[in-house]
Protein 1
Amino acid sequence: MADVSYKRHIAKTITWRVVGTIDTVILSWIISGDPFVGLKIGFAEVITKMSLYYLHERVWFKINLSKDGRVLESRKRHIAKTVTWRFIGTMDTMVLAWLISGDPLMGLKIGFAEVITKMLLYYFHERVWYKIDFGLLDRKKP
């Protein structure tokens, strides 16, 4: 199993948050019709999402889904991580959008729009990071 440093998880957290925040701002602006609502939701998410994402990375690092004791580094693992992260991220977005806009329907609309865009973006983010050795002390490539 590759030994993953905290630096890698922090770097992944930051790069994902940049991608995710841009997506949230654009979707929130389009759905609400107000660029300031989009910016408020996007910037509120920076704090909540970075904390949640880091915890998600740490939990998934400890999860072993293989049969022979080695960590399963495959597309299946990345898809599973994508689904669990999207659930957490969507719930956070819906609550923040509701609180900021004052409209629960706005929170639902923004949350559901993000499900599609963020799952695609997150999957490709995971695939890119899978190819990067940053923060890996000992990596055995399949």
Note: Residues 52 and 88 are 8 Å apart (CA to CA).
Protein 2
Amino acid sequence: MNIFGNNIKFSIFGESHGVAIGGIIDGIKPGTKLDFEKIDLMMKKRNHRAVYSTQRAEADKYEILSGVVDNVATGAPLAFEIRNADTKSGHYKDIETVMRPSHADYGAYVKFNGFSDYRGGGHFSGRITAPLTFAGAIFKNELEKQGIFIYPHILSIGDICDKSFMELENICDLGFFPVTGKEIEDKMLNHIEKVRADKNSCGGVVEIAVCGVKAGYGNPFFGSVESEISRMMFSIPAVKGIEFGRGFDITRLTGFEANDNYYYDDNKNVRVKKNNNGGIVGGITNGAPIIFRVAIKPTPSIFKTQDTIDVKSKENVQLTLMGRHDSCIVPRAAAAIEAATAMVIYDIIS
């Protein structure tokens, strides 16, 4: 079922080449004032335009259908839609039964008995992250009113890596996280351009730090903060992995090195000297920044000729894609991950 949340409920609808995409948000507190300037900024970050991005020109203009009067939430379900305006479905006309490598095509074909919308990936498309970003932007603004801030960071693209939040000496000091420097950014852009010129694509890693979440949120086992965040992250197309704090690298440390020692600061607030667990222990927040990294796979839509199958003729065939596709979706995915994180954190602390 396409429904997320415990204290809030969010459902999503639409296909990449359908009339519209959108969603319904239930659980926004009545009287919540929507900051459309901040929502627009978040939507623009997801709709990132660059030479390596898809040339599909969608304005991502949303229309609120219910639940808001004079920019204030009424308490009723907030329904909204985003119209698709620049679809070119003809690019998919001749490959309806040809399964694109590393897309959801084959699994969807089997699950939905051949009736799923194949155009542009249908309901499996990254286009569906637009409504997710809209909804998350609302909750991000509400979190900031409570002193909770989310810092996204493109940690790597291909084999070009920036410094991780985990490398900072002041990792436990709230609200101090750097942005990618121009030198690293230029190297990342050059790498993307190299694979784009080769009709190929690349992936990367997005790192997130959430500052200001107090200790005591979450539950052990099935309701852990890690499991709730992970569940949402894997709802974003192209996400293939997630790790918290030191992640897999913590296995190289001894217990003495890995343990996050508690102490009282001058104001008798509980702090940790290290943050190897990424702000979550036993599924529950400990007051340190929540830090995790998300792996984004290379865009599967590439222009090189590839081997695949035609499920209608039941033959092995070769496929050369047409259309407009991102060479790297990491910069755009970062905005969706940031917004999705806000929705999860808001749901957890509500």
Note: The mean pLDDT is 92.
Protein 3
Amino acid sequence: MIFILKRGVSQEQVDKFVAGWEQQGLSAFVRPGTEHTAVCLIGNTAHVDMERVVELEPIVDYARRVTEPYKLVSRTVQQENTIIRVGGAEYSPSTFPVISGPCSVESEEQVVLIAKRIKAAGARLLRGGAFKPRTSPYSFQGLGEEGLRFLLTAKQETGLPIVTEIMNQTQIPLFEDVDVVQIGARNMQNFDLLKAVGRMGKTVLLKRGLANTIEELLMSAEYLMSEGCENIILCERGIRTFETMTRNTLDLSAVVLLKQKCHLPVIVDPSHAAGIRSLVPPLSKAALAVGADGLMVETHNDPAKALCDGAQSLDLDMFDKLMDDLKTRAPLEGRTI
């Protein structure tokens, strides 16, 4: 249930209105917007008489029930797009920032080299896996804390904000200097982790699970937002289908639907979707064409020797070419890289 407040309402009046609902055991979230301010009630609101509240509360303009199971991320509650700024990157309808870097951090020299090259090409954020969830227990699991230190070194040398994946709640203290905390596809419905990360006060990149619906992704975002996380970037990274020629099937329709249903930015990861580096550039351009808010692309200085996912990683020259193409195409869509 949401209450749309009248224009010119003071913060003191809003606080008093919210406190009244919280005293009744409900959670009340204030969603300011350019057109109006909304107060969203979460909990058992069946007993709330909306018409009576509108009649008796002078600050309330009108009320409506939110029929979707996700509330805070819904465009019913907030019509305006959430604009997220990380370092020099901005996620908005007029921009198209690119995140890039290796699937896994392998050495300080490697990640610093890649960071310098992708920054020169126009990437806005550096991604790299320090902790790696792998299907096989015998596969390379990442460098852990050492990998995080290498990422922070690359950040210091280039100024690029860093994106890296968290695996469980015990790692939270290690992520103090990480700019964007990634919830990976395998953890999308790890609800305890979602709640803990939601309380970190960080920007979160939430990947869609490999077999999850769009609504389930939105509900996972709702977990984060219900814990106070305001800056959430959704990521479509392909879903598992009966097709075997690609690693996953990139669901570009999900980008369009997500942007219709919620106010959060949506980016695309064509590397994990395809699993084949030659498909990454065309899928990246397709993501731009359907209105995605950015990309996350895997790059490596020597993909043939990569310890993780080399087949889907662009080499640095290929990344340069992709960025040149995007810089040419983005203005045609009213976007800047």
Note: Residues 25 and 330 are 48 Å apart (CA to CA).
